[in-house]
Specification:
Blueprint: H1 5-14, H2 22-29, H3 40-58, H4 64-81, H5 93-105, E1 114-117, E2 124-126, E3 130-133, H6 135-138, H7 143-159, H8 161-174, H9 179-202, H10 206-223, H11 234-253
Helix pairs in contact: 3-9, 4-8, 5-7, 7-9, 7-10, 9-11, 10-11
The structure holds zinc ion.
The site of zinc ion has 6 residues, from α7 and α9.
Length: 254
């Protein structure tokens, strides 16, 4: 789950700029292919999702080039919008520790990311400068699942998904589009972006694949099969987890 734009707007109304953005640029630059260890089937799956993402945005005449250009133009506004209030609420120490360890495992510096306690429907959400944690639901999960939930958010951070949501909202506002059509594309886009984050985190190694399986099993047990327009079904995620675990195990044996 990413922080949705409406919620972000609320945050900026309350917020003041405390973050310089240097860490943020540094983080986005880190998003270079670390896929050499992934097997070809999983790499193909990732490429397929990536292809579908651009195909979907192409329906609104939005290309990779448009998004990159607009992201550069709007980066300043975005950084202001996602800045974190100094009065933010902290998470408990054990949660903070687990999050810091996971950030370090993905080569992110915990000093670049605020960890904020937040009441919201999902257990976690993110921007490029903050992880928002709903400890009530987050702590219902086992440690491996908690780690995966954070690893999933980390992929959003590395991909710049929250920035892209911000930019897409503005690009779409500028275009004379049928709102229903635009919404449909954005929902499909969002589902694909969620699957991409799952796949990226889960294919790090077989241990992460296992954590994905545990996280999706627990989520399905706890909340059942969702029917969200912006997120894939939990059952679809569980199936993807099973495929990845099988594939990663095969790879380990070979
Ligand atoms: Zn997500």
């Amino acid at each position: 789950m990413k922080t949705n734009h409406k919620r972000l707007i609320k945050k900026i109304i309350l917020g003041i700029v405390v973050f310089g953005g240097i860490g943020f640029l540094h983080i986005l630059n880190k998003n270079n292919g670390t896929e050499s260890h992934k097997d070809s089937l999983l790499s193909a799956k990732l490429q397929e999702i990536d292809g579908k993402i651009w195909q979907e945005l192409g329906k609104l005449n939005i290309t990779k080039n448009t998004l990159t250009k607009k992201s550069n133009q709007l980066q300043r506004n975005y950084l202001q919008e996602i800045s974190v209030r100094p009065t933010r609420r902290r998470v408990k120490e054990s949660t903070r520790q687990l999050i810091y360890e996971t950030l370090r495992e993905f080569d992110l510096n915990p000093e670049d990311i605020h960890v904020v306690s937040e009441e919201m429907p999902s257990p976690a959400s993110s921007t490029e400068v903050a992880l928002y944690i709903n400890e009530k639901t987050f702590c219902k999960h086992s440690t491996p699942a908690q780690r995966f939930i954070i690893a999933h958010e980390i992929q959003h951070i590395l991909n710049g998904d929250s920035l892209h949501d911000f930019v897409l909202d503005r690009v779409i506002d500028e275009k004379p589009l049928n709102p229903r059509m635009a919404n449909k594309v954005l929902n499909t886009y969002s589902q694909l972006v969620e699957l991409r984050a799952d796949l990226q985190a889960a294919t790090t190694n077989s241990e992460w694949a296992q954590r994905y399986l545990i996280a999706t099993q627990e989520t399905l047990e706890q909340v059942g099969d969702n029917s969200s327009s912006t997120h894939p079904k939990n059952s679809e995620r569980l199936n993807l987890a099973r495929t990845i675990v099988n594939q990663m195990n095969k790879q380990t044996i070979l």
